[in-house]
Every structure is written in C-alpha cells, then in structure tokens.
Amino acid sequence: MSGRVGGVKAVTLADVAAAAGVSVSAVSMALADHPRIGARTKEQIHSLAEQLGYVSNSAARSLRSQRSGTIALIVPNTGQHVFGHPYFMQLLVGVSEVLNARGASLLVSTNPDERHGLVAYERVLRSKAGDGAIVASAAVDDVNVLRLVDSGLPVVLVGHYPAIADAVSVAVTDVDGARAVTEHLRVVHGLKDIAHISGPMNHQTSIDRLAGFKAGLGRVAGKALVVAGDFGEESGRQATKELLDRRPGLQAIFAANDEMAYGALLELRSRDLRVPTDIALVGYDDFGVSRLTTPALTTVSVPASDVGRRAATRLLDLIEGIAQHGQETLPVTLTVRESCGCPPST
Amino acid sequence: MSGRVGGVKAVTLADVAAAAGVSVSAVSMALADHPRIGARTKEQIHSLAEQLGYVSNSAARSLRSQRSGTIALIVPNTGQHVFGHPYFMQLLVGVSEVLNARGASLLVSTNPDERHGLVAYERVLRSKAGDGAIVASAAVDDVNVLRLVDSGLPVVLVGHYPAIADAVSVAVTDVDGARAVTEHLRVVHGLKDIAHISGPMNHQTSIDRLAGFKAGLGRVAGKALVVAGDFGEESGRQATKELLDRRPGLQAIFAANDEMAYGALLELRSRDLRVPTDIALVGYDDFGVSRLTTPALTTVSVPASDVGRRAATRLLDLIEGIAQHGQETLPVTLTVRESCGCPPST
DNA sequence: CCCCTTTGCTCAAACGTTTCAGCAAAGGAG
DNA sequence: CTCCTTTGCTGAAACGTTTGAGCAAAGGGG
Description:
The structure is a homodimer. Chain A is an alpha/beta fold.
C-alpha cells in the first residue's frame, strides 16, 4: 500500500489493452459495445476489465465526448437558506431518483453568499461541469436566469417565470392553491377578516400565492391585510405580531408557507390566542410535520418531489435532444386539518 | 444564436491566446499567476479573458491536473431515504458551506436501490469524479466502507466506526447523549419503567444510543425494554403499539430519533394517553420541529451542521496533504422541553 | 567586453478517452 | 481465380488544459 495520500493507482484503458493484447481503441470500442468488434474479443475484454477493476476516467471521458453525465441543481441562495427548507429536500428526492435511474450524477451548486448571484450559475454553465441545469427558487428579477436560458445550455426552471416565456419549466398551481385555501376559510368557515403573510415579493411563488389569496377573498378583498415575510419561521412570528397589533379582531391568518405559519403559531400561543377557536391559521407547502403540530396545520400540499422528478426528466430529455416546450404545471391539493377550524380527522 | 440544443460555443485558452497574441501556455500561466509571466502581460491576459468570458473547462483541467475540485457526499441509501431525514439537510448545510468557502464543488451520490451498496461508492471512487468523499450513514457491516478507506482515497466518515480504527471520522457523543436523556427521566422525574425504541441495529448510532440508554438506567437496567425501529415515523408508531401492549404501565419512552418519537406521539394520542402526564416521551436529534409539537419534545440536540462542517474541512485538508488522524467527536446537548414532564419554558 | 544570471515567454508532451479513417484478412459472388 | 464486400481490428488525432524544459533577450558583475 502506497504511503501517499490519495495514491490510488488507476487502471486505464491501456492497462486493459495490454492485458488483452489488443489496442486501446479495441478496448474502448468493446466496452462501448461497438458492432465492429468481434464477440469473442468483446467477451474477453469485458471480463478482463472487470477483473482488473477498470473504471473509465470521468474527466477524460467528458473531455473527449463533450458530455459530463452530470447535471447541476443550481440554487441561488446560500447553503443554509437552501437546505434549511424542507421544500428542497423533497425536490432533491425527486431529482436524485430520476438521475439515479438514468445513470446521471448530481452536482449541487449553491451561492457562497447573497451578493454574488452570478457565482452559482457561472461555475456550472461555463466550465461544462454539468450538461444541463435545474434552477430552483430564483428571484423573478434575477437576470442571470435569463442569461442562462438564453445561453442555449439545457436548463429547466423550477417555478413559474412569466418574464421568460420560452423557458422550459415545471411549476405548480400556486394561484389555485392559495385561492382554494382562502376560499375554504371564507366559505366553509365563514371568516371575513383574513390576513396574509406573504413571502418575499421578488419570488414568483409569493406573487402567485398573494394573487390567489386576493382571488379567494372574493368581493371582501377590500379588507385584505398583507404583511411580507421571508419564508422563515421568525419572519412569520414578526409578521403575526404586526398583524395582531394592527387588526385586533383578526379572524384568520394565511401564511404563504408552513414555516411562517409555525412562527405565527408560536406568537399566537404566547399571546394565549387559541387556534382555531380564537383565530384560524393556515399554511402552504405541507412538508414533514404540519400534521404534527397542535392543532394540525391546514395547508396546501405541494408535490415537490414530483416537481423534482419532472424537472429532472425533462432536463435529461432536453440534453438528449428530445424537444421540451414551455411550462408544465402540477396541481396542488388542499389539505384540511384542524387549524382552520375543521374537526380533527382520526 | 445557434439553433442547436446546448450549442454554446465555449471560449478556450487558445481563443484568449490568439486575442492576446501570445502562446496558450502563457495564458494558462498568467491566469495561474505564475511568477515567470510579466506583470503587464498578466494584466492584459486577465482583462482579455474576462472580456471574452473565458472559463476553464473542468474536464480538461481535471484530466491534466488529476484534481477535480469536487468532493462527493456518499450516502449508501436511496434518495428518498436520504433526503427524507432532516439530519442530512443539516449535514448538507455544513458541508456546502465549507465547500463554497474553499472553492470546491459538491457531488451528491446516493444509491439507486437498496441492493447495490456498491454503486454509490464505486461511481465516485474509481472514475476520479471526486477528489475525496464524505461517507454518511453507512451500516456498520458495510464492507464497502472498509474497502473505500483502504483504497487510499481521501475519505472522511461521518459517525463512529469502531471496526475501522484508523479511519478519519467525525462523530458525536451518542452514548453520552442517550445516557443523559435517560438519566434525566430516571433521576429528575423519578421514572423507573422506561422503554427504548432503538434504530436499526446495524447502524452504530443505534448501538451507541442503546448503550447510552442502558447506562442511563443505572441499576434498574434489568427492567430495560427495547424494541427496534428503522428511524422512520411509522416504525416508531408500530414500536409504541408493541411496547404498550407488552407493558401497560409504562412510564416513559425514549425513541432513538425524533421521527420515531413523532410516531410514538401519534400512537399515544390515539390511545388517549397524555404526554407527559400519563407517559413521558423523549427523542433524539432535535431537527426542525421538535419544539413545535405539543407537548414540545424533550430531545438531544445533535450538531449535524457542525459535523458537516468538520467533515468537509478535514476532507479538504486531507486532500491538500494535511494529515488527519482518527476520530473527532463533537458533543451533543440535552434539550429539555415539556414531553419529559418538565414545565414549559416561555 | 565577455560571461553568467534573471526574466519572459514558447514548445511539446501528457492526462485518458473516443472516433474516424484505414488496412489486412476472410468470405462470397461471379 | 478474381474482385468486391464484410469483418475485425489498429493508428492517429482530438478534446483543453498544465507544466517542465528550453531559448532568446536583457541585465549585471568582473
């Protein structure tokens, strides 16, 4: 055993060729199952390669074939922000499932810090480290997304980007979901005074959910009270403070995601307001633990892993030259639990 | 704009060289800040490269320099299993933070299916796609881990591997944590009849937490009741059913992770057993939402993102030739909330 | 004024693959 | 027996980079 760190002596095509007594090309072609290599030779080379533990060098292969076999998941946010949200876990589940099935690798690229929106894109885009990219959770005003799409590199966007009409993207019916949950509060529970804690307004998701909220209010929309958060739990708590101070008799809060709803729940608890008796609360996303809180949170279920699956599938198809067109939209579903005032289901 | 999919014309060193009127080597050396290149030339080349949008081709660079600038996070489980656990999110947070800071990329490698423990390792190990690997959550009897460590490739193991004494690893004080939480139940709350829902016993984490549990029971250890789960919520629920059926007057349940504790909570609720009045419940991990359940879950906080940070740091150091020795162990902390019987903290 | 060092660059090889053109041998048709 | 096709392989080039050797010019010491 060599004392050098990382001193693994790699087996190359040349080693296999020498052992088999044929040329390097023959080995390469045999392993690629090229028709012009004899069956006997192929068999021999295959078993020899196996025996020697040959694995093709991915750098050399990529260089020569202009194909890395890797796709990048680009998230223009810091690591903390990204992985902190269960949404990305679900997305990753779907993406990695498809990539595994199709023999591709996954490069996860996040931004070092909030300033350099560029970095995450560029690293992958230019260096050819990935054959294509899935871009998740970019701000609507992020010019880099546009540049990336325009560059001709295969890219699938996660989410709805009205500004980039011809992009290939996979989104969910956020407007419908937000309207549905709002209407549930208004129609089923007869609540009129409903406030919304929105996400950051430079994200389309926030815009859509806000639009759905307003639509769901129907003709009482004039009373709409909206405070923006940042999708983080603490911002949900802050927003709730503000809402309660501004509108003491508030009947319901619709938070644009579950994490902010948790923050709201904490604040409501600390003010001894009972959910849903004193005030109803609903969230959005339905990741992980919404059903474990007390009361269990009524929310909108977003099929994030399906989104990941579709995004990965379409990206791989795109890379393989199968044309993909426009926006694909997956439906969300209203998940009624107790925090809206409905009775607990067993 | 070319009509071809992915038809991005890459700018190479040769293009920059031509524009600058120097050789390719000069450009390469200038960009690498080699001392034998004149200051004026360097400056000119740098601005020209910037202007043309040159980004080095990562495949070519890797091939020539035998360095990919990428490290792999290997998780010998399927995508679903991996990302489903908040533990990995936290790990990823730490890992990606360090990698970003040090200019490395992250390749996430999971297993296509449970059968082929090999695949996840091999893909990265041999193809040189990664300069090193962080292995998370492997079973203790996984021979591939041993092979990987023995291969000489830089590897950092997450967790405690007694069988591989000389491996570089980052773990947490699981035995201490489990003992602390058990002792809390026994000493502070005076509970004697405590059961444990363990994780799968082919994981060291489960073994350590079980050992800590037994240690924490002290001389009442004879009464120890243990049922194994699989770290999933549903298995926690099943285990709880079994425990309650076998020991009706049970005073407390210590689940080896929070997810199984959630499952236990669900089962206890459905039997109208009140926590902590009728029975105490504690978990382990403290990810995300343990404080949002009702009652808030007493648990042991595992600094998973710190583990990720340390693992990544040590791996990069290892790759750079800075020797790393043996096991590093990070402390866990007991996080007391309400489910053990302690009063709620405001 | 000559020789030696330093400076600033160029040349060429190498990393491990894939792929295309080509060539020898074998087989088949006439 | 000759010519053409097919079969089965080899040789060489190319992908874009890094790097060590080498070379010309400039500078400095004697």
